[in-house]
Write a structure and sequence with these properties.
Elements: E1 3-5, E2 14-16, E3 19-23, H1 29-39, E4 42-47, E5 53-58, E6 71-72, H2 73-77, E7 85-92, E8 95-102, E9 106-115, H3 117-128, E10 135-140, H4 141-150, E11 158-159, H5 173-219, H6 230-242, E12 247-248, E13 251-261, E14 264-273, E15 284-286, E16 291-299, E17 310-311, H7 312-325, E18 329-331, E19 354-357, E20 360-363, E21 381-389, E22 395-404, E23 408-409, E24 418-419
Parallel strand pairs: 2-6, 7-10, 17-22
Antiparallel strand pairs: 1-2, 3-5, 4-5, 4-11, 7-8, 8-9, 12-13, 13-14, 13-21, 14-16, 15-16, 18-20, 19-22, 20-22, 21-22, 23-24
């Protein structure tokens, strides 16, 4: 359900929680009216920075007399980072806004939501299964306000079911004559406008075709060749943990998480009150002043990852042997099916030539301990993040395992198939 978010220092209110859908071309008013009967009476159409088109809808919001007073928060934020990215922003105590953006900088279904931390985290976990995300942000209402102050595209909502009308008046004979003379001019202008509209539509369709071709080419990029090696992630998280306080001003660290992305790491620290005051709580206060959450992001340039990867059977043997020989607890998940994302078209490849699973390891020492095993020894294994909780003797390592579905991958431009690194010809 849509709601209003007032950003500090920004006069215009923002609407959050719209439902979004992809459009091949900019929809006309008649089509929007028909959609609004099902999707919601208020809405807008946005063109992304990549040139794709989306329509957003919501039902009228209590207390707002006109949608023209509202701007879309998702339309303002979606182009702020390269896709695919997701972000969670704290609006007030236990009130969060979540955004998820993928193909063509489009807000995906359920990717514009407002609710409690549990509400948005549940949706975020569901979206993690859509594939890899280059950026996963934690922010505040102040971050949103800063974006709004520098945003120049003031796209507002409108009532999609409102029809413009002109009162019928009695006109004189002179007016009728003038109207008859003007009719020829109007017809000429309408024909010229229609010609311009056709050129614009043709250009837009050509651009959409080029963008689809680009998405097809990107879908053939081997993802494990763009993600940091496990040892790089473990080393970076170990340096962050070295500077992590276990207690601060009467607050105790209850859990800690270090997540990796292509351009750095992000740390999330959960704190519990141990005699301290709410005014001294690290990060963002939660749970009636008894808990808090602190998030820090660090940009880092990782070394070039190894292209090695194994076929499914060999990869299963390698990862289980790695766990068994090092005394690690391993939990395997089934391969993740690639979903159909907004903007996908039938000419895009339906099945990648690789599969993705998400093994979870537990070990009795810090992963960066000199005695800890190196996860680099398993071909195609990448570390997504590390987790620690107070009172548990083990660390948790969340990983992604890439395996080959077949020994070859189609060339990006229709040429002969080439063996993948690590595959058998």
């Amino acid at each position: 359900m849509a709601d209003i978010i007032a950003l500090p220092g920004v006069r215009a209110p923002f609407a959050a929680g719209l439902s979004w859908r992809h459009e091949d071309t900019r929809p006309k008013a008649k089509a929007l009216r028909a959609l609004s009967l099902e999707k919601g009476r208020w809405g807008l159409v946005r063109e992304t920075s990549a040139g794709t088109i989306q329509a957003g809808f919501c039902n009228p919001i209590d207390g707002v007399t006109s949608p023209a007073k509202l701007r879309s928060l998702a339309a303002m934020v979606a182009d702020q980072h390269p896709q695919p990215w997701m972000g969670r922003y704290r609006i007030s105590e236990n009130r969060y806004w979540y955004i998820a953006v993928r193909d063509g900088q489009e807000v995906i279904p359920d990717g514009d939501r407002i609710g409690t931390a549990a509400d948005v985290d549940r949706i975020r976990e569901q979206h993690r299964e859509l594939g890899e995300w280059t950026t996963d942000l934690e922010g505040t209402i102040d971050d949103l306000a800063e974006m709004a102050r520098t945003w120049t595209r003031k796209v507002t909502l409108s009532d999609l079911q409102r029809r413009l009308w002109v009162p019928v008046a009695i006109v004189s004979g002179v007016a009728i004559a003038i109207a008859a003379i003007s009719a020829g001019v109007v017809v000429h202008n309408e024909r010229a406008a229609a010609a311009r509209k056709k050129i614009e539509d043709d250009n837009r369709l050509a651009l959409a075709a080029a963008q689809r071709a680009e998405r097809v080419a990107k879908s053939r990029v081997l993802p494990w060749t763009h993600e940091p090696m496990p040892s790089d992630v473990v080393r970076a998280c170990g340096l962050a943990w070295r500077d992590q306080d276990l207690a601060r001003g009467g607050w105790m660290l209850s859990s800690w998480r270090c997540d990796a992305s292509t351009n750095g790491i992000s740390m999330t620290s959960d704190w519990e009150r141990a005699g301290g005051l709410a005014s001294e709580a690290p990060g963002t206060l939660q749970d009636g002043g008894q808990k808090s959450e602190e998030s820090v992001q660090v940009r880092r340039a990782f070394s070039e990852p190894s292209p090695l990867v194994a076929q499914s059977e060999a990869a299963q043997r390698a990862i289980w042997s790695f766990a068994q020989s090092n005394g690690l607890t391993l939990t395997m998940t089934a391969a993740i099916a690639k979903p159909v994302l907004p903007g996908a078209t039938p000419d895009e490849p339906a099945v990648d030539p690789w599969t993705i699973s998400q093994p979870v390891f537990k070990l009795g020492m810090a992963p960066w301990d000199p005695a800890a095993p190196s996860f680099d020894t398993v071909p195609g294994l990448r570390v997504r993040g590390l987790r620690w909780s107070q009172g548990t003797p083990q660390w948790t390592v969340d990983t992604t395992l890439y395996t080959l579905r077949a020994s070859t991958i189609p060339a990006a431009h229709g040429g002969p198939a080439k063996p993948l690194p690590g595959g058998r010809a």
